[in-house]
């Protein structure tokens, strides 16, 4: 029952002030966020790459209310692209972007987000890396997939995220399972109404497996975003049954969650990509991580109790 409460809290300015002021918060956030500045994130990417892991980087920032913020987020990603190229990391690290950070929710937001994300995708391609469009709440799906289609005309490696808890996602998986398509499948981390999304964990899991089967049987490149051992095992079995090679799909997990499992999969020869967020706007991301897994919340509460 705490999950929906924490998801609601992720959008509360009052609770944000309380959590941000707690002395224990910063050390706990550091478990999941690779610093507030690009200069702090780059060494994290280097260390992960040295351990045989690949990375996708997310400059935190979403639900912006000012067009100037969209420009700042665009410029932050352009700086990130330059840093990856300069550090010779573009071959091991891609970028994840939330289109709300590029102005998607502002008036004229669809066109604004497309205008701001396009130079980022262009710069990524020139640097030898690519971009994946993160998916946000259900109201943004149509716009995000339309922007994806536009970007893929010039940059076919541009990827997208689909969330299994939405009723529509099986159809979206079928539409995006074609040759060259890159899709990260996740369960979903936003509070969605029962009219558009499964509410029961078991139903979400079953939907994830159905979507996973569609993507693994398709001609695209599935990216399995899950920490669930069952989903990892099902993916491996599907790959064996369908004859997919180890370089024809990948696993993705969040920075700070199950790092030993990440290294185990990489050591077995799997492509294992770590989702690494950084930036000052960490609050919403942090609260969703607490909501997703009781172990994350328990970790935070134990830390809080230890400081009391």
Overview of this structure, please?
The chain has 308 residues and is α/β, with parallel strands linked by helices. 53% of the residues lie in helices and 14% in strands. It has helices spanning 2-9, 13-21, 25-32, 38-50, 67-86, 109-127, 141-154, 169-175, 201-217, 229-242, 259-267, 283-292, 294-307, and strands at residues 54-59, 93-98, 131-134, 159-163, 182-186, 221-225, 250-254, 272-278. It has an 8-stranded parallel beta barrel with strand order 1-2-3-4-5-6-7-8, surrounded by 8 helices. Helix 10 links the parallel strand 6 (221-225) and strand 7. Helix 1 packs antiparallel against helix 12 (283-292) and helix 12 (283-292) packs across helix 13 (294-307). The longest helix is centred in the N-terminal third of the chain and has 20 residues, at 67-86. The radius of gyration is 18 Å and the shape is globular. The model has no long low-confidence stretch (mean pLDDT 90). Its cofactor is FAD. It comes from Streptomyces lonegramiae. Keywords: FAD, Flavoprotein, Nucleotide-binding, Oxidoreductase, Proline metabolism. This is proline dehydrogenase.
Shape field = globular
Structural class: alpha/beta
Please identify the oligomeric state: single chain
Number of strands: 8
Instruction: Summarize the amount of helix as a percent range.
Output: 40-55%
Taking the sheet with the most strands, its summary is: 8 strands, parallel, barrel
Radius of gyration over C-alpha positions, nearest whole angstrom: 18 Å
What portion of residues belong to β-strands? 5-15%
The largest sheet has its strands arranged as: 1-2-3-4-5-6-7-8
Query: Taking all residues together, what is the mean pLDDT?
Result: 90
Taking pLDDT < 50 over at least 5 consecutive residues as the criterion, the unreliable ranges are: none
Count of helical segments?
13
Report the span from N to C terminus: 25 Å
Write down the secondary-structure element order.
Answer: HHHHEHEHEHEHEHEHEHEHH
